[in-house]
Every structure is written in C-alpha cells, then in structure tokens.
C-alpha cells in the first residue's frame, strides 16, 4: 500500500519523480560507511530549486525528516537514511548553469559531479582546483555540505575558499540567495559560510556559484621512499622551502600493498616502510633543478632512500594512483576510519603520541595510514580481523577513538578534518567544539530548521 504521505507529496508536486523500490531504497539510503541498514520512506529526485522548496514545505506539514543526498561518497554516515526519512537526491539537478568570464565564476546545480565541473572550467581556460580521488562520483553539493578538502588543500584550500555564492532551501522552506557572487560584501552576517560544512542540517544547497582559478602551471610528480615515519615532516620542510608545492601526500607500506593488490604497479624493487607523493610546479628548468636539489638534500640527510620522478603525464597518473587508489582498495574490508587534523606545526608531537596509542590499541589489527600530511590531515583505517564480529570490531575501535579524541583535544585538533561529523563522529564532537559552541550551533539550527526535519540525528550529540 502506498504511504498516504507520498500521495500528498505527489499531489503537491505532480511532476516529481519518486522511487520506492527495494533496490533504490537500499542504494540511496546509505553512504560508504555501510554500517547502518538503509530504511528510507522513498527517494525524491527534484530537478529545480522550486521542487526542493515544495518538498521541504510538504515535509514540515507531514513531519517527515529529509536526508539530502549527493554522490554518497561520505565516510561519516551523513547521508544515511535508516529511520523512514525521505531521501532528497540531487543527482538530477546536475546542470552547469552559466559561466561569467569577467568574474571568473561558474554557476552549477548542486548535483553536478566534481569532475564535470573541473572539465567545464578547463573548457574556458580556467580551473576549479578543489580535487579528490572520488572526483568522478562526488558532487558539488556534498563537497559544500562537508567543506571537503582533498589532495590540493596545501595549495588551494578547502571547498569554502571557492564558494562565491549559494542558493539554499532552508528547513523553513525558504529559498535564500547568499552573497550572489560578490567579492566584497560587508552587509551583515555571511550566511553562505554558515551553510558550508553544515552537513544538510540547516537546509539543502541547490545551486552554487564557484570561483575559478587560472590554469595551473606545469607540474611534475615524485614518489619518495622514506626509512622512518619521523622523516615525513622533515621531508615536507625540505621540499616546501625549495618548491611551490601543489600536493604533499603520504602513505605506508601496508597501504601500498593493498593498492598494488588492487591492480596498481609498484615502481620500486623493494618494500619501504613509508612513501610520499609530492606534486610541484615546474614552470622552467630552474623549477626542475630546484626539485632535484630538494631530492638530493633529502637523500644526503638520510630522510629519503629512493625516489621516482614522473617522465610523462601517464607516469604521473600511475604515481598518483598509488595514493588515490587506497580508499577503493580498502573498501571491500569495510574499514573503521578516523579522519583527523591538527595544525601542521603540532603534527610532529601529535604523531609521536598517537603512534604509541594506536600500537597499544590495535596490537592485532591491520592499520593503514595515509593522508594530506602537508595540511595536517591524517587518515587512519583499521581493518577488521577475519572472523571477528562487526559489532565487536566497531566497539573495540570506538574505545581507541575515545582516547584519540582526548589526544586531539590536547593538541587543539579536530576529530573530522574533511569527512564531516554525520552519525559516526557525533559522540566526539565535544572534543573539537566547546559546550558553548555546540549550544550556539543548536540555536542556529532552531532558527533555520525549527521543526528539526533537516538530516535529523546527524552532527549533534544525542
């Protein structure tokens, strides 16, 4: 029997596509966490902003909770619908709406896939420089909702820096145009930045005006093999002093083993404990010489024991695959993930402390480390031992996460660097935000979502 609430939604928006099939409910009711059993009421596919306005106004009347959905590549349970919510999928709202050559902006719908946006920018001789390994499936709306960072934060910053304007449907069902692409605007609160990183708890982003950058300079890529974890930050210092870094990423031998097992090629003849991918600008021969000087300095200091420099775009892509392919290679094992950050200056002391913590907490677990170490972001992936029940595994991991949260608090860090809080991280929010801050956040939510229908249960501790 069709739910009468859906019949009322169809009467309000007769052209709205709604799906209630088991396959669609399962697919759109979960994200990459795979920890919760999806159980949404239905999936709605709006095509324009006014459709979303109608959905929210209907949800307020019917008391239905809404879960905004983009590419569902999140790792914190932010797009999970497990309690009869209506999933609002933005995947049909995927158009590039316009390009302004003077302001160098691109207007897009929230469901536009990141890679499509990057290609659109390139077609105009410019770049949208925010980038992730999931570029082919993640969407601009999801990137905005989590203030996603990715592999080029070191050079270009997080998503927030590239948002010139937003069109948002709040939890009140009101359509707001925020900032309208202005470079300077001192007329009160900038609500645009309030929505960035709000994880769908204040409203649904339906359109965005994105800033574009000049086309990047020519770059080259190195893969470095390191003898010890302590060398990572020293290598970063050596290269940062001599080069314009575009990216600086690290991963362990365990991560490399999984990626190679997934089909990538290892360029080295022997296994090394740690690896770094460095991408740097090389506008001329002086840039190439500076890169080799940095490499030689690191070798002489014993910080690097081997290295490969890309000789072509294809080889650069192969090197990057060793880093970008880690998450996909681990996905079948459904790892327990920590995505943490501290100030770059605090990273050495933080790393020294958590090495011991993780060694003691996971003596018999396989732990895969990688991250955007140049911007203070570390990813810790714990793999469930074969034969261990999932709930027992999660319980064990959460014990360690509580200790990790305490360490982060001492070092002024964050339990979520770029994946959001969602369902997974909300017990640890108070380690990053004070009680007073959280209460202010709750108050803001009550103003924009008075009925609590926007992604209820996410972000805030119960």
From TrEMBL:
GO terms for biological process: respiratory electron transport chain. Keywords: FAD, Flavoprotein, Oxidoreductase. InterPro entries: FAD-bd_oxidored_4_C, FAD-bd_PCMH, FAD-bd_PCMH-like_sf, FAD-bd_PCMH_sub1, FAD-bd_PCMH_sub2, FAD-linked_Oxase-like_C, FAD-oxidored/transferase_4, Oxid_FAD_bind_N. GO terms for molecular function: FAD binding; oxidoreductase activity. Its cofactor is FAD. Residues 36-215 form the FAD-binding PCMH-type domain. Belongs to the FAD-binding oxidoreductase/transferase type 4 family. This is FAD/FMN-containing dehydrogenase. It comes from Lysobacter spongiicola DSM 21749.
